[in-house]
UniProtKB/TrEMBL annotation:
It comes from Rhodoferax fermentans. NCBIfam families: YifB family Mg chelatase-like AAA ATPase. The lineage of its organism: Bacteria, Pseudomonadati, Pseudomonadota, Betaproteobacteria, Burkholderiales. This is ATP-dependent protease. It comes from the Bacteria. Residues 300-395 form the MCM C-terminal AAA(+) ATPase domain.
Length: 511
């Protein structure tokens, strides 16, 4: 038969769209034509596939007119993931493998010139999308990619190291070799994720800074965002880098979602399985680097930090467009990237930790050095953070400089494990009461679950009016107060909880 069909998948965001690789061999001038809106990497598959087939000792139909169609034709295809299905399609159309046996199988893999299979980006995302849509199929993937995809429960994944490993499994039934055992390179991969104890940095390393540590505990317990402000060397980065150790361990669903996004970005490794990510982009990062983009769209830092921490050091130094692009994801937990022909949605449920100096020289209000900035320079520097963005950050904390005496003589503080236990207990109270962390409360849920005392409500109303708070600021202060109450084990939110929450909302000179 001169026509064969092989199934594969193309990735558009976290969606895995089905792609049928159609190969037709015909008489005519020898040629190799590839159609179907293929990117440059896919078109280069012609030379890789030709060399891989020949160097594997198989017959390449050089005297035929070869037409490969990647259907549907209007779906963009990129990367070298279609090398293996194209090679199998050519071998099937030339009768070297059984095309009927390919039914129920899907293939993805990049071929080397010798026929070895190389890992592809997004294998876990592809397997997770198949699992979520209820599609039952058997996947054949290269090493490393197969282990990724097998992390999804009930996934049927097979690992192949070489093109010949796949060919031997699908030889025609008339072949004497059909009954032979598959080679060592062919194996079923079972889902046995190796969960290692997380070795996050310990909060006990930070001397002093009791107020900042308390704010970290509240942020971890309720899922709140946090802004740290203080002079250089006061410990802002140390605190932020240890924040992830206060968060509860990842559930299986959270680990799969986070790993799927990392797989799309080519950053996933089995050693990082079930570890909350901490992304720390440089302050020169563009808006596209932060929120994602490109054609086809790729996830940005906020999506790679899904179910983890996004730490933005030197917060005001980021481009204004990049910071403003964080507004919607902070509210919705997703980012939608629209292009002329395609639209992709990526998850972005992260906890933002920002760190900044109070002024350009960094020593405003410091006892160590005198600030040399003018009031206009201070206002202009802090004004780089817009009011709407600052309004979306729940906790604003000053981190004062630590004296040398305090640094040398203060004993280590509480370990991360001790603080994490309190955070997990408080978060469990919130989940039991309302089914979500306090930060995720919206609309009527705030009135229903905050359980504000009458005296606390009156106190908050008077304070919010005098301070000129927006409705968003008031609601966020309420959610922080509810988290403080959960940490204290209180049933209702009282005046003391609201008063502490109000201390964590300072007003910057934002423009």
């Amino acid at each position: 038969m001169s026509l064969s069909l092989v199934q594969s998948r193309a990735l558009l965001g976290l969606d895995a769209a089905a792609v049928t690789v159609e190969v037709h061999l015909a008489n005519g001038l020898p040629s190799f034509t590839l159609v179907g809106l293929a990117d440059v990497e896919v078109k280069e598959a012609r030379e890789r596939v030709r060399s891989a087939i020949q160097n594997s000792g198989l017959e390449f139909p050089s005297n035929k007119k070869i037409v490969v169609n990647l259907a549907p034709a209007d779906l963009p295809k990129d990367s070298g993931r279609f090398d293996l299905p194209i090679a199998l399609g050519i071998l099937g159309a030339s009768g070297q493998i059984d095309t009927a046996a390919l039914a129920g199988w899907e293939f993805a893999g990049e071929l080397s010139l010798s026929g070895e299979l190389r890992p592809v980006r997004g294998a876990l995302a592809m397997s997770l999308a198949l699992h979520g849509s209820g599609v039952v199929t058997q996947l054949v993937l290269p090493p490393e990619s197969a282990e990724e995809a097998a992390l999804v429960p009930s996934a049927q994944v097979y690992r192949a190291r070489h093109l010949l490993d796949v060919v031997q499994h699908f030889l025609p039934t008339t072949s004497e070799n059909r009954a032979a055992e598959p080679g060592e390179g062919w194996a079923r991969v079972d889902s046995v994720p190796c969960v290692q104890a997380a070795d996050y940095l310990d909060l006990a390393d930070v001397k002093g800074q009791l107020g900042a540590k308390r704010a970290l505990e509240i942020a971890a317990a309720g899922g709140h965002s946090l802004l740290l402000m203080g002079p250089p060397g006061s410990g802002k980065s140390m605190l932020a880098q240890r924040f992830v150790g206060l968060l509860p361990p990842m559930t299986t669903d959270e680990a799969l979602q986070s790993a799927a996004v990392a797989s799309l970005g080519g950053r996933f490794s089995l050693a990082s399985w079930a570890r909350r990510p901490t992304c720390q982009p440089h302050h020169t990062a563009s808006a596209v680097a932060l929120v994602g983009g490109g054609s086809p769209p790729r996830p940005g830092e906020i999506s790679l930090a899904h179910h983890g921490v996004l730490f933005l050091d030197e917060f005001p130094e980021f481009p204004r467009a990049a910071l403003e692009a964080l507004r919607e994801p902070l509210e919705t937990g997703t980012i939608t990237i629209s292009r002329a022909a395609r639209r992709s949605e990526f998850p972005a449920r992260f906890q933002l930790i920002g760190a900044m100096n109070p002024c350009p020289c960094g020593y405003l209000g410091s006892n160590q050095k005198a600030c040399r900035c003018t009031p206009d320079q201070v206002a202009r520097y802090q004004g780089k953070l817009s009011g709407p963005l600052v309004d979306r950050i729940d906790l604003h904390v000053e981190v004062p400089a630590v004296t040398s005496n305090e640094l040398m003589q203060t004993p280590p503080g509480e370990a991360s494990a001790v603080v994490q236990a309190r955070c997990m207990a408080a978060r469990e109270r919130a989940i039991t009461r309302q089914g979500k962390p306090n930060q995720a409360l919206q609309g009527q849920e705030i009135d229903q679950f905050v359980l504000l005392d009458e005296a606390a409500a009156k106190f908050l109303n008077v304070a919010a009016t005098r301070l000129g708070w927006s409705a968003r600021s008031t609601h966020r202060a309420l959610k922080v107060a509810r988290t403080i109450a959960d940490l204290a084990g209180a049933h209702s939110t009282q005046v003391t909880h609201v008063a502490e929450a109000m201390q964590y909302r300072r007003t910057l000179k934002s423009a």
